[in-house]
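For the sake of transparency, this paper describes our internal protein records without simplification. Such a record has a labelled line for the sequence and another for the backbone structure tokens. Nothing more is needed to write down the fold, since each code stands for a local backbone conformation. For reference, a complete record is included directly beneath this paragraph.
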Amino acid sequence: MKKVLVIDDSALMRRVISDIINQDEYLTVAGTANNGEAALEQLVHGAKFDVVLIDIKMPKMDGVRLLREMNRSRIRVPSLIVSSIASESGSETIEALELGALDFIKKPISSIGENFADFRVELLNKVYMATGLGSYTGAFKDSTHEAPKTELRSTHLSGTATPTVRKYHAAQKGSKLVVIASSTGGPKALQSVVPYFPAKFPYPIVIVQHMPAGFTNSLAQRLDEMSAIHVKEASDGEMLKPGTVYIAMGGKQCELVHKPNGLYCFSENDKPPRGGLRPCADIFFESLVDTGFEEIICGVLTGMGSDGCKGIELISQSHHVKCVAQNKETCVVYGMPRAVVDAGLADDAVPLEDIAGMLVRKAGT
């Protein structure tokens, strides 16, 4: 039985989360706290937990400061942020991920309906991941929702997606695009990748990081502060330019659209989630099928499930594709990289600190 510590200043939310956890046969709430200070007291005095669920906004000691104090005291317990995560707290959430939180979960608007059902599934799935239980599947026995693929036991591709009949644009010599897909552990991992691209990198870079609305702009700003190359959140209708890193907008599907002038622009749209994901890397890759890039260089970092794998396989049928995967040893969760490795799509699997250099070399710069 895995022990969970629930930290939230709302008594109602502590009860809601506790009820979800305690209804699972492999989990139990072994402690609660109404602020970070009370939680830290339990942890410092030796209380043992397998995972800590932390709200961001709390009195006395908020979630970010708690994580900072845990690091200072060398308290090594997997942590997940569970917060209402309004867009104005995006920077705090990014900082929490930098401090070691594995992932974050957005609180539901209400305790009933589809929104709450999705929250319950996401919470249990990520708690299972954080505690090493593997994939949570119990909620899907009588559900019409597709079960998220586990980050710990990714499956091999079964079958190949068939592209629709399209008019393919002729490859433009020397035109290249770099695409990076990431999920759980990605915001922190990207800090070991993006800042190592040179300021004058000659090609555009697009990052599809699984995030809800309101957070990718904070992530882009943080990476831009750390990097010589310019980093920004992609916006709808924006033209793709070389030497710029674009973060796909959270809560939207991101696609590239070919314009009559031969250039490409972003479509940040409201197409439905796929596998619960918006943005979804597979959808972005699918939009590249009829593009005229001479070469597409792909990086697949730490993350849940196998998003990006089918998309990379699809574009490999129409483009020259090079793919670099993060190796198992440096992943927070070896799911997405494992999928491309198992599918035979990865040319190299390297440690996180070598990803940027490998992508730059494969781009021929």
DSSP finds eleven helices and 14 strands in the chain. Residues 79 and 100 are 7 Å apart (CA to CA).
